[in-house]
Amino acid sequence: MAAYSAGNYAAPTIDEVVPFVIQIVYPLLSKFIYVSPNVIIKGRVEELLAVNLGNYGIAVAEDCSKRLSTYINLDVLDAVQRSASKPWVSETPYAKNACIPELGMVLIDLTKLEKDLLEAILWWSKVLNRSERSSPNPAVALALHNRHLKLPHSWRVGSLIQSEKTLVLRYGNGRNVCSLFGSGTISQPDFRDIVEHYLPPGSDRILGS
């Protein structure tokens, strides 16, 4: 099967896998919040940590401006689903309009986190066999399918609408994110103007101008 060839494929970026490898570096952690370096949390961290994840090991907000069908050929996905026998492949059809998980902020409970999650992300990256890179990588969304608790929309990172209900915002210039294996970069947008609306006077001396 071509999906298992040694050719190039669109591996996830470092940002997309960092939340799921922290347990390797800090195995004594139990429940924690991963926050991307260019993210500011306006909401109360205590409230987020108190969220009951139920049987899930991960809680993330979803970005419904990005849909699964935009990033993947659904015919290919159907074929993979019929032929592959993996615990992370859904037995029910994937919704083509499924929202994409936003990984700028992730709540993780390591006592419940699936041990094969990183393996699932890399497996989907290879099986989809996509040579072009995009952000977000659909492999991450597929690996998290039915494996995460959906946080309220107010916890979604990077909303372009200035609202008092927005609890998480990006800060800083647009940047290029390296892929997991260092082959290529993906551009990300600039949200500086949005965040500066909420920063107190003199904050530029701390954050840098």
Polypeptide structure, described:
The protein has 209 residues and is α+β, with helices and mostly antiparallel strands. It has one domain (2-207). Helices cover 28% and strands 18% of the residues. It has 8 helices and 10 strands. It has helices spanning 14-25, 45-49, 68-71, 74-83, 117-128, 138-143, 192-196, 204-207, and strands at 31-35, 39-41, 58-60, 62-67, 99-101, 105-109, 149-150, 168-170, 175-178, 185-188. A 4-stranded mixed sheet has the order 1-6-3-7. Strands 2-8 form a two-stranded antiparallel sheet. A two-stranded antiparallel sheet has the order 4-5. Strand 9 and strand 10 (185-188) form a beta hairpin. It is globular and about 55 Å long.
What's the arrangement of secondary structure elements?
Layout (H helix, E strand, L loop, with lengths): L13 H12 L5 E5 L3 E3 L3 H5 L8 E3 L1 E6 H4 L2 H10 L15 E3 L3 E5 L7 H12 L9 H6 L5 E2 L17 E3 L4 E4 L6 E4 L3 H5 L7 H4 L2
Parallel strand pairs: 3-7
Antiparallel strand pairs: 1-6, 2-8, 3-6, 4-5, 9-10
